[in-house]
Structures are given as structure tokens and as C-alpha cells.
Amino acid sequence: MKKLVTDVAVIGGGTAGLGAYRAAKAHTDSVVMIEGGPYGTTCASVGCMPSKLLIAAAEAVHAIERAPGFGVHPKADTHINGREVMARVKSERDRFVGFVVEGVEEIPTEDKIVGYAKFVDANTLTVDGHTEITAKRIVIATGSRPSWPAIWHSLGDRLIINDDVFEWDDLPESVAVFGPGVIGLELGQALHRLGVDVLMFGVGGQVGPLTDPAVMAYANNAFNDEFYLDADAEVEEMVREGNSVYIRYKDKDGCPQHRVVDYVLAATGRRPNVDKLDIENTGMTLDPRGVPVADAFTMQTSVEHIFIAGDASNQIPLLHEAADQGRIAGDNAGRAPDIRAGLRKSKIAAVFSDPQIAMVGESYKEITARLGTCACFETGQVSFEGQGRSRVMLVNKGLLHVYGEQGTGRFLGAEMIGPNAEHLAHLLAWAHQSKMTVAQMLEMPFYHPVIEEGVRTALRDLNAKLHLGPEMIKHCLDCGPGC
């Protein structure tokens, strides 16, 4: 067995692992990166980028279907060529992955160890039985993988995950989506708009990542206007029948129903890839899911020379968070024992559905857990149904809630479903990270007519409820009609 001694070993070559490797390299040349699978981050290969390609195709279809609302009538029926749709998705996906691979190829060959690592002890790793690595510091950046109930294995190749969708050569006729979270909503709605018959089932009433009951209820109704979504479904039976899946369930009225679909798409969550690392040999403190407990600002675990980053950390499984965590973990692994807190940015999350969903800062659930349901905070709101620019563009669906702290007037966070939510969320996230008050946010410029004026309406409502500004008036004279 080959034996190596190194200052830093990074386990994983995805977004967090690459960030950790480069950050550690700024402090020492003695760094190795261990990767057993193909290079190409989850985002580029099976996550955010290919899903947006599918969504873009769906949006093109939806724009044509919406055209008659403007008095514009297409001359012929829209024809969706599933093979052409998927060919573009895969071609562009491969292009994005290629950029990542090019970056990996620039890493010296001697720094890349191919295989899957396991801990022998807190400083020693073995890689597929061919290499033993003794490292002074270690970064775990092994990512995550989809998870689903074990009983579904009986569905064979009729059970798919998002990875499988992006390998299709053509679109199927029907799909049952389990899990109306980020992945389920994005893929389910896109497939529906591309002509696939979609059923969507959830558990416990959860829709997307939302925690505000009013915003979640709005989202539930909005998606149900398009396709069947039961966020608290009672599925009684699901069995493989040839090349199809038979599903027996009770509908939202409690009536027995049954359907036969081509595929079941499991969008029921992801689990950190730490269960095959023999992590118990390190003596690290683990959470109830078996994931190492780590400091959110240093990414340091209970074993001071081991750090964890990205989806493996089970903190916030998003690319920009994985990149930030990777840099922090790698920087500290490289500079140890001079451990430093890294900048953790205000939380921002988006679902690229239509209407889009976004969350910023503290969620409603987090605020109520911290402050209770007392009058320590207030909620400002705006409906996009009557908002001027939204109506102009026929995208006037949505609800925005913004939260502010009583006494200080500090902006705490927001949850929303609505047009351009991805862009509204960025404005609000910048304000949150700057620790602005609601009054300070209202001093910022707003053009007319833009969808962002809806943010100002919600902030004015919040400022009034915090008793820091005048009561809301029905028609705002300084911002024109329909704001």
C-alpha cells in the first residue's frame, strides 16, 4: 500500500472540496484532494444548472400559452419535441460540467488521489485499499445524495431521482413526484408545462422550504391551479406493473383514486455522505443523524484538526453556502492552529418555480422560535395580484411577507412567492446583511413602474405596524398607479 504524509487532506472534489483545497493551498503546498466519483459539482451535473435548463424550456412553452392574454394568438398549436428539449438540456449540462473539469485538470496530478476514503483514526485515511494518508488536518467535503423510503426499491428502474431525469433522451407521458420541496416543485412544474402528466404528493402539508403559514397556503393554491398537488397525501399502495407504476391513493376530498404512471420521481430529501467514512473511528461528536457537529463560523468539528463543509455538514445545502463553507474550512485547515471565524452571509434561498419562491434572513419559524408569538415582531405584506408592473406582464400572482423587530425596527427576514422573487430576495438579503432597519430600507431609491415597488409597499406596511411610520394609505400618490 502506498503511504503519503500531508499537511491537509480534503475528502471530496465538489464545490466545497474544491474551495477547501484552494483555500488550504494558500497556506501550504502539502495538500491532497481525494475523490472517488466523477469530477463535476452536483450543481453543474445534476442540480441547479440542468434543472434551470429544463425550466427554461418549460417557460418558453408557458409564454406561448400566456400570449392570448395580451391579445396575441399563435398561428398553430404548440408542439413540444421531447427529444430536442432533452438534447439541449444534456448538451448545455455537459458544457457546464466541462468548465468544472477544466478547473480540476489544472490541479497538479500528485495532489489528486482517486478513490473513496475511510478513517482509520483521527489522522489516518485509507483510500480504496491502495493508499494510506497521514494528515495533520482533514476537511470532510463529501457532499450528499438523494434519499427515499427503502420500500420503494421494489419499483426498480421506474423509481428515479433528479440525476436520472437529466439522462432521459425523451420526455415520458406521466410522472408521480413525491416531495413538493425545491427539487420536486421545480422539476414537477417544468415537466407539467412540457406536456407530462404530473401528480405531486407530499407529507405533512409542507410546500417548498416555506415556513410562514399564509405564504405556504398561497403557494399551495397557486400550484394546484396548474397540476394536482396534495401536500399531505394518503398513498395506500404503490406497485410496479410492467414498465409502469400503479398508485392507489385518497384524493384531497378523501375519495379513493388510482393512477398508472411511467415513473415515480423521488424528491424526498438528501442525506449527507458521511455514513461510509468509518467516521466513528475519529471520536467526533455526531448529531442524531450521524453527521459531525461543527462550529458554523469556523467549520471546526469537536476534533480540532478536522473540519467539515458543504452538503456533508448538514447545515444549508446550497451551492453558494457550500463554496463559503469550503473556503472557511480550507483556510482554517491550512492556517491551523490559528483558527479564524469566517464571514457567514445572510441566508438566501430560491425555488425557480412559477411563481418563484424565496426566503431571506430568519424564517418565520426561526423568528417565532426565538421571539415567540408575542408582539416582539411584526409582519408587513403585499399581494402581487394588484401590483402594477406585475399586472402589466400578466405575472400578478404572489404574496410577500417581511418581518421586523419591535423597538429596534430592524429587518429580520422575509418569505415570499411571486414574480422575480429571485431578484427581490437579493435586495432584501443585502439589506439584511447590512443590518438595516425598515426605515433605512425605505430611504433607498425605487423606480416606477417596477415589481420592486411591491417590496416598498410591504416595508411601509411593516413600518406602520412597528409604529415607526404613518399608517398605510390605499393609494400611494408618490409612486404612481398600481404599486
From TrEMBL:
FAD binds at K52, T142, G143, S144, D311. Keywords: FAD, Flavoprotein, NAD, Nucleotide-binding. Binds 1 FAD per subunit. Disulfide bonds join C43-C48. One of its GO terms (molecular function) is flavin adenine dinucleotide binding. Its cofactor is FAD. Residues 350-458 form the Pyridine nucleotide-disulphide oxidoreductase dimerisation domain. Transmembrane segments: none annotated. Belongs to the class-I pyridine nucleotide-disulfide oxidoreductase family. NCBIfam families: PRK06292.1-1 (NF004939). This is Dihydrolipoyl dehydrogenase. It comes from Veronia nyctiphanis.
